[in-house]
Amino acid sequence: MKQRMECKKTMVAKVRSVLSKQKSFFRKIYSFEIPDSKEFDETVCNKIRQTEKLTIFFQAVRNGVNQSDSVGVNTFGFRRFSWKDWLISISCFISVIRCGILGKNTNESVAIYLGDPLFRVKDGHVLLLWISVAILVTYSFREWLLVLEAKGKFKVLSVWNICCNGFNPVDLQMNKLNTKRFRFTIYLVSLTIYWVMLIIPLFCTLGSLSLVLTNPLMYRNPKLAFLALLWAPTLSLSLTVVFSAIIGFGWYIMCSLYFHLYRLRDQIDCADILLNNSKHGLFAEKDIQLFCSKVIQNLNNLEEASHKLRYVLLWYFSVLSSAFDFDLFIGTIIRVYNSLLCNFATTAGFSVLISVGIFGHIFGSFITQLGRLTIRLHQLSCKNKLSMQSVSKVLEIMDRAAGPYNGIKIGDLLTLEKRFFVSFILENISILMLFTVNIGPYFESYKSSA
């Protein structure tokens, strides 16, 4: 009997050890933990510096993360141009004028000398006019951003520049968990933007060359092929710069807003700690007064950032959504040029629209977080006897949280909320339907007449 009992015990021990090993194995595979080490901290800081250098190289900004409110414009309100600015401006103007002329041109000699990559291609004028308009609009937006930066309007984007030297919870005014989450979020955003900005020149170069090389008439007319290849670098440079500027500046906006979002989440955690202390009789009124002062200060910083960036975000949401709706239109409805270009336009349009919608969904959580903060303050004020000074601060925060000035503003039109993603997708579907109904018949009649 003793031997049987010992055998059973050894069998149970073996089974438990095997199950524990399998459990630890599956935990390693399927569990996800936020990295926390000095090496990872240095990796994130290096990635921030690398992404910042790319944005400066592509002239998305000129001062990087270290924005200031000092004015760098002349008496006429114009910023000082560098040799990169002149090169970018000249190439963009050449591309806009060239594509605009080719989009309306019917003379073959003019098309040959301007190196028309879509020579005698059905619907080619649509694509050329679209490229001309896209470069003009994005270049104007880039110039507007650089002028605002030279006027010192983007100091709100440097609120997170303390992260360039490390993620210290004391400097960030967050607890360790929120600091780790914020650091990992910044790493993911920076890594994504870094690689996208590296890939953009390759895609723009291949795109401008593919327009030339996939046209069969290029192989019958050597002069046209030579001039088209000669003009191609100007077009690829223009597209690379304007698209990189849009994506690079979006990186500064996202990182700044993430900083405010994680600070707000940290304040909710602080409110939970105060609630827990009050349950155990460890409540001190000085703590809630200090807490309310920090909340008011952070709300003021968020309101300032939202106010100064509202028209920039309006451009991102309105112009980008309309532009990539048109990409979906020419890629799925009218099928311009060839299937390769149509598939690329469809993929780009769908990806950008989904990304913009996700951006709105994430930062729409500001309103939700403020609602949670209001609930915590209400619980604190009900469970504890507060002085008039503390009550006035609590009521001020509640009034600010319920007011119309909170959250991320899109111009003067609306505030980002959680349900924005659904409404954004529905609005873009309706815009695509408007393109199809109003512009689609024009292309059908043009194809039938051709």
From TrEMBL:
Keywords recorded for this protein, A-Z: Membrane, Transmembrane, Transmembrane helix
Highest taxon of source: Eukaryota
Segments crossing the lipid bilayer: 86-104, 124-141, 184-212, 224-253, 313-338, 344-367, 420-443
Signal peptide: none
Protein name per UniProt: Gustatory receptor
